[in-house]
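Hi everyone,

Forwarding the result from last night's run.
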Amino acid sequence: MDIFSLGGKVAVVTGALGLLGRHHCQALAESGASVVVCDLDGDGCWAFADELPTHSIGAGVDVTDARAIKTMLDVVLMEFERVDVLVNNAAINDMFETPALAAEQSKFENYPLAMWQRSLEVNVTGVFLCSQITGRQMAKQGGGSIINIASTYGVVAPDQSLYRTPDGQQLFYKSPAYPTTKGAVIAFTRYLAAYWGGAGVRVNALSPGGVQNGQGECFIANYAAKTPLGRMARPTDYKGALIFLSSDASSYMTGANLVVDGGWTTW
């Protein structure tokens, strides 16, 4: 199974301290890669990098800041002399500070422009900048794999009934920004795959389904009922797909959106 090995490769992961980000880093390291753990908290990134089983490093990076990304890449090249994998995982998923007001604030009619613009900046511009700066180095090397973490909500519209209690109370609405930005990420993936194909840089999207992570019982039950496999994802359910897209096992795959959602988008 050598084609799945990432031994000798260097992988950069943004949003690495989040729920899925940590599992992405662990999967890459378990397959042999040196991991560059990137998030806003630089000290936290270094602490987590020290826990990984391969020689890995941390970097405090704001994905909307081109200078910070360039500085990170300079450090990576000094330490490892190359970069082979970029996982664009950093993203904003709206949270409303006051639960009692969440339903009203999250309505499309009331959705704040500032939240819309911030999501575009992080979820789309952040992917653009990290891909532009890191992918340029991959193209110079003659190869690499960029993996953009999208979402099932970039493929299908949110089902607002998931956020409704059995008595009909709407707790909140899934905002317009997240599905819009994730749809843009999938379109950008296709663009970049076509643009850099000749340079040997593969670009694919990975669209995960919802991950169980302390949500209310009602939501979990609603989600499971709409999923052919009958459950939400575990954080570990995406490790195999990530290794596949990062490794030579997917060497003839680019411009694709790999949907791993328990069958959510089949209905």
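The chain has eight helices and seven strands.

Cheers,
N.
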